[in-house]
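Box S1 | Example of a co-folding query
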Amino acid sequence: MSERPNILFIMTDDHASHAMSCYNSRINETPNLDRIAEGGMRFNNCFCTNSICAPSRAVILTGTYNHINGVTTLRTNLDGRQVTFPKLLQAAGYQTAMVGKWHLGHGGHNDPTGFDYWNVLPGQGAYHNPMMYDMGKEIYYEGYTTDIITDLALDWLKDRDKNRPFMLMYHHKAPHRPWEPDDKHADMYEDIDIPEPETLWDDYSNRATAASQAEMRVNRDLNPRDLKQPVPEGLSPEEDMKWKYQRYIKDYLRCVASVDDNVGRVLDYLDEEDLTDNTIVVYTSDQGFYLGDHGWYDKRFMYEESLRMPFLIRYPKEIKAGSVCDDMILNVDFASTFLDYAGINIPSHFQGHSMRPLLNGDRPAYWRTSMYYRYWMHLNGHNIYAHYGVRTHRHKLIYYYADGCGQEGASDDAREPEWELFDLDKDPYELNSVYHNPEYAEIVAELKDELHRLQDEVGDERYEKDI
Ligand code: CA
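Box S1 (continued) | Returned holo structure for calcium ion
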């Protein structure tokens, strides 16, 4: 067995941390995901730099922000000629594989690169009886996709060369929309009501226009395919919201339960094969999600529920079991971290930091206390305005530049720009922008400077108008 650690990177799609019991979920239990937290470190402040599927995946692979890697929206595929961390691991002798959801394009330079083996869903893929591209070849599978992806991951692990370390990206489609559970979990939660979030009845007052314009309301925008059952007749508006929330959240949590079972199968395999000590196991999701928070489903906004990613990491050789970290990490840090553990030099153009010092219980002086975010996909998909912003541990400043900026996959139908500022200590649910409150004038000025400093640091452009 090589001394270099194996890396098992488990990623789901749209799994918010407030639906994981190790993050104190009020609505479900995730005993197998909790095993990773109990055996390693849980990060409470892991954020994505652009809260949507393909862009977050591109950031993770390339270690760069979206204006560098080119995947700014859902219509921009990843050009696989770029440097990615799997390529560097492969070149250094790791066996590498990518199984499950890819979502960065297919064919030509958009197929997965840097993997000895890949077998991926086309685009979003199906929940049942999926077609997959096995090294580019169409194969049809029978069964539930969460189980199938796990079977394929385990098959690859069993067949690997045991004399070399491995890096496996094991990516679920679940619990992405349209939240189709398997038969095993179909009746879970049938006889109970799932608690509603505090902000289910948000009226979007005291904020910029963007929040009220978003088209992802549980009580208005879920379609028949999402709901799967006809809405009962004669419901009051309150009963209608409650019924749709239960319909939505139960299917979402059933999909999560299947993920949890299947992650348990893979963790069991590591235990049985004596691989646990020398394997870095990560559990994350490409972004967070609104679980009825603000009356919404989906993601995209820089607000907390979709900005925050779950991030659990276990590596018994170095990481103290049951530890918790409140420092700010980003998806752009993952690539550098894996290279660091594998003893590979981190390319100078990578924009994240290895989080290994944090994992060893130290906070280096250079560690960030603010982060830069940008959602590019103006109006396309749920009518969300394009925005960028900065988050510190206490505050969040958002600028809705509300313009497509010529991006493929973004609308060129510009809207009036607006700012928002939230004091997260006083207003953790972000219900009251204090941008125009004179008491915060100094904070606004400081945060604008910080936003511009971060934009300069990562090399992104400004679109601010004088308002
Ligand atoms: Ca996603």
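The mean pLDDT is 97. The CA atoms of residues 46 and 329 lie 5 Å apart.
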